[in-house]
Amino acid sequence: MIDFPGTDQEVRQLERFLTATEDLTADPAMEEMRTRALAHAEQLSNAVNIGFAGEFGAGKSSLANMLAGADILPTGPQHLKLPLVIVAFSETPETTVGWWGKEPKVYSGIALEKAAADNPDFISVGLNTPALKEISLFDLPGAGALDDTYKPTLDLLKFVDCAIWCTNGTNAWRETERHLWAQVPTELRDNSLLAVTHADLPPVRDALDRVLARLNKEKNKMFRAVVPIGTPVAVRAMAQEPEPDFALWETCGGQNLAEHVLKIASDRRQSDLEAARADLKQDFLPYLEDLQGPEQEQSQADASAVQAAIESTLPPLENPILEDWLAAIASIYADLRKSSAIEPAAFLNSCQEIVEDFAERLEQGGEIDPSADWIPGEFEKATDLLLLLQFETGDAPLKDAISILAQLSDNLAWAGSRVDSMQPKTGT
Question: Looking at CB atoms within 10 Å, which of 67, 86, 299, 410 has the fewest?
Fold first, then answer.
């Protein structure tokens, strides 16, 4: 399984920069930095957008349904005439009807027919599907033969990070398709796949080796990879009870395609993350240091004093996770000290995110005493409590949050290994 790189720390740093510079006197240089920081924060906070394009009948909607794990998009020649359809994660199923020039309309549940009747510019379908937490799917309208009117549809690819062009395996990668795909920017083509659909049909299956050899030779810089897929078979494999038929899923190309899609999405997320880190290191964090000046130095001095006081009353500890934890909560206390106007909800949200990060780290094991296996559960409960506190008002939630952080600190301190108890004893 391909893991997506984590972005929580970078997003928090970007938000910290945006909050600190929000009320400063605007100048072109500052506005340019804020624009970059906001773009990074949005990019890293959202799912990676995968676009599906291709000629009519290429099976792109079926492929998008397969990857979404839900039969949402209509398929076949009789299906609804739809604009761009976005399938994204949502806690509860909903359908959003959108226009470029006016406010959207939201229907509960999946309501594509009702949405299409509104003649929208695009439709967004929200599903509570785990696969959609990392990627969103953009199903573009189908193309016709040498259809230059498809150019506005290709323009919609500016909203996606990666793309999949679906070509019908019965007559794969025709000249008309080359004509259309050649109009796509090179950067997007570098993050794209050519999916050869209908690979389950006997005529395609029998000639597949020859077709793939030709396409791999012709792809040049047009695609990162050529991937065959028998979509109906893949859907059937995953629908088997009591568990999916993983052998069939692999032989029909489902596993290979899913891995390729996740790899290009993960690579794109990594590229975005590296770009954000570069700007943070070169521009945003140095600017914050200059901006904070003596106040930041005082905050660091206070943190050092607290740490010294702790070390003076406790035996030495070899406890890296406790050190990281204390550094993390010191950073949010510094933010609270820095701005008297900080929103309680923002402070509580920062607390929740940090506790959640450490809960995941503790679940991986190996950093606390084995007898303290109950501590990860305490962090999980604290995450839920901090979420609930965000819906309360007044000063009490802030005090409760600080008490929760203090208790978690005690737990981690108790679970640490004392250096003196680990030293080999020598005889006298």
Answer: 410
